[in-house]
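Our working data are protein records whose layout never changes between entries. Getting from the letters to the tokens is the skill we practise here. To make this concrete, we reproduce a full record directly below:
***
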Amino acid sequence: MPDDLILRELNDGVLALTLNRSKANALDSTMVAQLQNLLKDAAREDAVRCVLLKANGKLFSAGQDVTEFGGGEHISFRKHLQKNYNPLILQMRRLEKPILAAIQGATAGAALGLVLACDLRIGSPEARFVVGFGGIGLAPDSGVSLLLPAIIGLGRAAQATFFNEPINAQQALDWGLLNALVPAQELEAKAWDWASRLANGPVSAMGLAKRDFNKAMLPNLEEVLDYEAHNQEIAGQGADHKEGLAAFLEKREAKYRK
């Protein structure tokens, strides 16, 4: 698989993983598999004490690359999620080392799930968060249906999902989606500073705290991911998705009522 889709840098206990796909850092199966393998290595390597997830370019990630599915007629969304995003989200939550995300631009769809699965998030004023699935007639997956309401509240999550409205950086900070908001030119340095502080802290104790948080706040995460996959299979075969996807590819407004 290509080595440059995700850049890997290990520096003084911090493993920086940088999304590096020219196509808006859109995620495909190859990229997700590479990220899964890198996180497996991170779990095994004592030299890795913190993971810093970041991205090159103006966007953090546009989410799943829908062109990977072609026309979508013969895609099993359930199988796709069970292979790709469900195990990835579980990996991130079960990694007993802190994961910090640095977000410099838009993040949407499945990439939002990745960001939400991190332990801490910092962003620049250009950061914005789009649930995205409704834009192509799908339901949330990648843990978004559980993690987003848990962080910002059910009403706000419903509004962002149903209207597909971006959550801007200041809203994200006010609602607890971002832990810190820093000027764009300071984001990289601040991310490394936070990651270094985490790597030099009591990582074993942080891992146990993460277990506690998972038990207290996300005890049904695996069940929810499976249920998301079930519902996405239904949505993926529906008329709304067919129209939403066609509109997206044709760069026009979707017409859900005909």
About this structure: Residues 29-44 form the longest helix (16 residues). The chain has one domain: 6-185+198-203. Residues 213 and 219 are 9 Å apart (CA to CA).
